[in-house]
Amino acid sequence: MEQVWFLTRFLRHGMLAFVMPEVKPIDLAIDLKSLTKVYPNGVQALNGLSMRVKRGEIYGLLGPNGAGKSTLIKCLTGLVHPTACRGTVLGFPVGDPEVNSLLGYLPENASWPEHHTAGQVLDFAGRLHGLVPRERTRRVTELLKLSGLEAWRNDRPQHFSKGMRQRLGVAYALMGNPELVFLDEPTDGVDPVGRKEIRDLIRDLKREGKTVFVNSHLLGELELICDRMAILMRGRVVRQGSLEELTIESCRYEIAVAGNLIDNFGLMDLIHRLGGTVVLTPDGVESHIELPTRRPQLVQPVVDALRQDGYLLLSVAPARQSLEELFMEAIRTGGQFKTREPGD
Amino acid sequence: MSSLIAIAYDTLTLLCRRRLFWLNVWLSVVVVVVVASMSCHGTGWSLGFGLKSWPSGYLVKGSPWESTLFFGVVQRATQWWVAGAAPLLALFSMASVVPKTLKSGQAALLFPKTQSRAAVLLGRFAGGVIFAAIPALICVTGLFLTLGWRLGVWEIRLFLALPFALLLFSALAAVTVMLGVLTKSSSASLVVTLIFAASVMALQDAASHPEGAEDEADLKGIVQSASGGSLALQIFTWPLPRTHELMEGMSRAIRLSGPRPFRDLVRRWRIGNLRVGVAAAEVLDATAEMPAPPVTPLKLSEAVLVTTGFCGLALIAAIVLLNRRDL
User: Across the interface, do B109 and A107 touch by the CB < 8 Å criterion?
Assistant: First the structure.
């Protein structure tokens, strides 16, 4: 069989198959320096995309429809051949089939084979990974329990609800005990309880040292579980980092005050000089001040002035953009984010 | 290797759940039962385990015509069913396997779990060949037992029909797999494979009968003249699967010939005063292959090698096509 694989490698890489070095594992699960994919119909799905995913982290991928998210995952799992690529997955060149045994993948619209029950689907995955029968049986039982499908072991996935199929997909992806798991919309169609279970499962995977790459439209879900994330637009990563890093530009202090501040010219002048804004509630009994800073020292003069003028402070709290707001801003601005001076 | 075996096993279970498989199996059983239901007695012969009897002066128990009858029928059942219709039915089932595998929902589940795309294709192909072997094996085993039961002849060489039948099936299956990758369509791959098979048989028949081609059949004559002569045709058909030679080789390998020619037996068949056997013998003559140069062991080895090589090339072409394709 080695010869068959070598033949495949030779057909894929040509003479390079003889000299391709054995790649050593490194600290990055995914290290893409430039990934481009142009489909034969001329559509450019990925445009020199670069991305770094550390081992052992939960990484989220956001982007509007057509941003290239699915193409990216397909390139990383070897389903689609990149037009040009410099980068590695778990230390192997992108598209190298040898990495497949280390990957788990839940596709977005999995089409389950009609001739298998849930248990047989997982058993088949175990066979593909070359597990011995005893290990396969143990793992199938374990994963059915983990995905809450023990009672449906002998039922066919065609009769499952969307949520159950998703849970089966997650179990299928985990069958070979992969190091890197790609989950494409894992909570799509899953009820709130099931979502929480999948979130917990993803956290458990992280605790086991696995890297999880999640693509989801449910931003709240990503916000809850992801260590870092990237926003993809028109085939490029426009932002990448932890939620804190991504929303640092939007850090602000929000002060709620009883009464109308609009007529207090001295205070309004101070707030404007700090770059802040004041919004009066429609009933005119509360004013909300927003100061675009993450430094509490810069808020003190405003608090002092409010106290001096006898206003009742209802709340003073630091605030930042939610992931949804960040995403919507990316959509609105086409990936061009406003920036502030560092340390501001 | 483990993924190849897993995919072959998966293909086998997938195909065995189809209705066409059971139709194939049941028809194989029917062929065996019909052959087994024939018997000769003191005054003639009967069909359907004695349900319908025909008196005969020569076709009686213990006569040379009895073994001629059984050998002739088993020979034709092997040629027409085991190496003909049964693999064709199996091909109908198998044609949809590769196109369905390449659909995005299934491809995304299967391919990232395997070390190479070649393993998926080879597994599907191997599973298909094993699948085709099941009804063929049932039929051959049944015919073997029938010969033993009715004549006391345990003709183990009958099982030699299996490798020949499977080699012929493999060549067609490899073409179907390649077309499946190319077109991603079950019906297109099946139709083109059938056209290919018919063309190969017609071309090779024409190439192996240079003198009689114009007289024997219009099609053969047309093919002959269109190809610009026998030598050109032989060169053109050389790399194609050797259906004619393999069938001939199979007949010689299983060596089922009675003490008298089977055709003579058919010619003698009467129903009442009606000499139906003469008409039946005419039909047999018309459908029989034209006399061709005998297949020598060297020629047969060449046919096996060329057909295997063709099969391998078709599979390599399928693998190359698949490796270049986005799924």
Answer: yes
Interface contacts (A, B; CB < 8 Å): 102
Choose among B113, B165, B319: nearest CA to A103.
Answer: B113
* Helices A192-207 and A162-173: angle between axes, nearest 10 degrees: 10
As a whole number of angstroms, the distance between CA A175 and CA A169 comes to 10
Q: Which of B3, B10, B105 sits opposite A111 (nearest CB)?
A: B105
Chain B residue closest in CA terms to A177: B113
Minimal Cα distance from A114: which residue of B? B14
Cα dihedral sign, B205-B211-B212-B215? positive
Report chain B residues whose CB lies below 8 A from the CB of A101.
Answer: 115
ipTM over 0.95: no
B312 touches chain A (CB under 8 A): no
- The full 3-state SS of chain B, as one line of letters, equals CHHHHHHHHHHHHHHHCCHHHHHHHHHHHHHHHHHHCCEEECCEEEECCCCEEEECCCCCCCCHHHHHHHHHHHHHHHHHHHHHHHHHHHHHHHCCHHHHHCCHHHHHHHHHHCCCHHHHHHHHHHHHHHHHHHHHHHHHHHHHHHHHHHHCCCCHHHHHHHHHHHHHHHHHHHHHHHHHHHHCCHHHHHHHHHHHHHHHHHHHHHHHCCCCHHHHCHHHHHHHHHCCCHHHHHHHHCCCCCHHHHHHHHHHHHCCCCCCCHHHHHHCCCECCECHHHHHHHHHHHHCCCCCCCCCHHHHHHHHHHHHHHHHHHHHHHHHHHHHCCC
* Among A25-39, A322-336, B306-320, the least confident range: A322-336
Q: For B111, list phi and psi in degrees, rounded to 5.
A: -65, -40
Question: pLDDT of A300-310, one tens digit each?
Answer: 989 999 998 88
Q: Considering CB atoms only, which of A39, A79, A127 is closest to B111?
A: A79
For each of the domains in chain A, give its residue range(s) and CATH number, in order of start. Answer: 21-245 (3.40.50.300), 252-319 (3.30.70.2030)
Q: How far apart are CA A85 and CA A93, in angstroms?
A: 9
Residue A25 pLDDT: 46
**Chain-centroid distance, C-alpha A180:** 13
**Range of the structural domain that residue B11 is part of:** 2-324
The beta-carbon neighbor of B1 closest among A1, A100, A124 is: A1
Q: What is the DSSP string of A60-102?
A: EEE--TTSSHHHHHHHHTTSS--SEEEEEETTEETT-GGGGGG
Both tokens assigned to A211: 């890297």
Q: Predicted confidence band at A5 (pLDDT cuts at 50, 70, 90)?
A: low
Overall pTM > 0.90: no
Number of domains in chain B: 1
A43 has a pLDDT exceeding 60: yes
Is the pLDDT assigned to residue A276 strictly greater than 60? Answer: yes
Sites in chain B below the pLDDT cut of 70:
208-230, 257-294
Task: Please report the pLDDT score of residue B225 as a whole number.
Answer: 52
Phi-psi region of B48 (alpha: psi -120 to 50; beta: other; left: phi over 0): left
Which DSSP symbol is given to A13?
H
Is A129:A135 a contact under the CB 8 Å cutoff? Answer: no
